[in-house]
């Protein structure tokens, strides 16, 4: 069942979801139970209401598992495998023409994925802002009063 605990006592179906908005140029990270995302692939769009963003359409752009291995488009399934690569997610070559065999995840979101990256593709005209829907305050308000006082003292 979604959200159940596995043999190790870990909760299944809770993801760190990194949402980026290319129009605003901002990104937000939130932890949500999003079991309906399991099975979606990189490049597929989903309704934002699955993660609490009513009025938004999002696209899966990638992700990684608990050990940090990235998802790679073009590999079927969600399992980890070693692939000979010359560029792309999971490998940055030191020179031109250098190939290496690296471990990566397939393009499908599975229960072994911890972080899912998504970007805003479409929004309704009357949709609220993403920070309001997620309950996140703006960065300028997050600065503690003590830090503001220290900054004022430094300016003097």
pLDDT averaged residue by residue: 82
Binned, the helix content reads: 10-25%
Give the CA-based shape: elongated
For the largest beta sheet, what order do the strands appear in spatially? 2-1-7-4-3
| Strand residue percentage | 25-35%
Segments where pLDDT lies below 50 for 5+ residues?
none
Number of helices: 3
Could you list some keywords that capture this structure?
3 helices, five-stranded mixed beta sheet, mainly beta
Short description:
13% of the residues lie in helices and 33% in strands. It has one domain (14-155). The strands form two sheets. The protein has a five-stranded mixed beta sheet with strand order 2-1-7-4-3. Strands 5-6 form a two-stranded antiparallel ribbon.
Task: Compile the SSE list and pairings.
Layout: E1 14-21, E2 26-33, E3 45-47, E4 56-65, E5 80-85, E6 100-105, E7 113-123, H1 130-134, H2 139-142, H3 145-155
Parallel strand pairs: 1-7
Antiparallel strand pairs: 1-2, 3-4, 4-7, 5-6
Report on the structure:
This protein is mainly β and 156 residues long. It has one domain. Helices cover 13% and strands 33% of the residues. It is built from 3 helices and 7 strands. The strands form 2 sheets. A 5-stranded mixed sheet has the order 2-1-7-4-3. The mean pLDDT is 82.
């Amino acid at each position: 069942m979604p959200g159940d605990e596995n043999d190790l006592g870990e909760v299944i179906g809770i993801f760190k979801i990194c949402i980026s908005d290319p129009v605003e140029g901002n990104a937000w990270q939130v932890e949500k139970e999003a079991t309906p995302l399991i099975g979606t692939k990189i490049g597929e769009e989903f309704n934002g209401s699955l993660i609490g963003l009513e009025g938004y359409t999002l696209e899966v752009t990638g992700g990684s598992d608990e050990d940090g291995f990235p998802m790679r488009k073009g590999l079927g399934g969600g399992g980890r495998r070693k692939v000979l690569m010359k560029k792309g997610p999971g490998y940055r070559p030191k020179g031109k023409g250098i190939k290496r065999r690296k471990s990566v995840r397939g393009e499908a979101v599975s229960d072994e994925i911890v972080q899912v990256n998504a970007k805003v593709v479409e929004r309704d005209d009357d949709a609220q802002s993403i920070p309001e829907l997620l309950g996140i305050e703006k960065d300028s308000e997050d600065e503690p009063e003590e830090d503001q006082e220290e900054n004022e003292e430094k300016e003097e």
